[in-house]
Amino acid sequence: MSCVCDSGAQPRAEETLLELAKPVPYHRTAEFRQTLARSVARLQYGLSNQEPGRALTSSGTGGLEAAVVNCLHREQSYCLIAGRFGERWKASAKRSASRHRRHCTRAKP
After folding, report:
1. Is 1 a member of any domain?
2. Which residues pair with 81 in a beta bridge?
3. Collapsing DSSP states into helix, strand and coil, what is residue 78?
4. 51 shares its domain with 16
5. Residues 6+ apart with CB under 8 A from 107
6. What is the pLDDT, as a whole number, of residue 108?
7. Do 78 and 103 touch, CB atoms closer than 8 A?
8. What is the mean pLDDT of residues 14-22?
């Protein structure tokens, strides 16, 4: 076994490392579309959801932006209490012209 340091040093089986060494399919190919469709279907099944899952081809910040833009109405108020992560939500909400009621940088004891 070898180690890959992604979320801490975790041992990986040899077959896993060999699979990870394969080239990633180009995103405009039929192979990629099939893989994405299969992954979304598995996501829907795994979450026991009746609606299809959504795959965002973005970073975590892209997911945060999508949540703010699609879940918060411009006139809707919301409260952020989440430290540094809350600051990211606040910045994203400002860009989408939503308003916030309260933003705390540290949780109160």
Report:
1. no
2. 104
3. coil
4. yes
5. 81, 83
6. 44
7. no
8. 91
Query: Which of 30-39, 54-63, 78-87 has maximum average pLDDT?
Result: 30-39
pLDDT beyond 50 at 15: yes
Smallest CA-to-CA distance from 100 within 90, 108, 109, 92 is with 90
Residue 100 lies in a domain: yes
Is residue 51 domain-shared with residue 66, that is, in the same domain?
no
Query: Is 5 within the bounds of a domain?
Result: no
SS3 23: coil
Phi, psi of 102 (to 5 degrees): -150, 140
Report, in angstroms and rounded to the nearest whole number, the Rg of the chain calculated over CA atoms.
19
Number of domains forming the structure of the chain = 2
Range of the domain at 66: 60-104
Is pTM, for the whole model, over 0.70? no
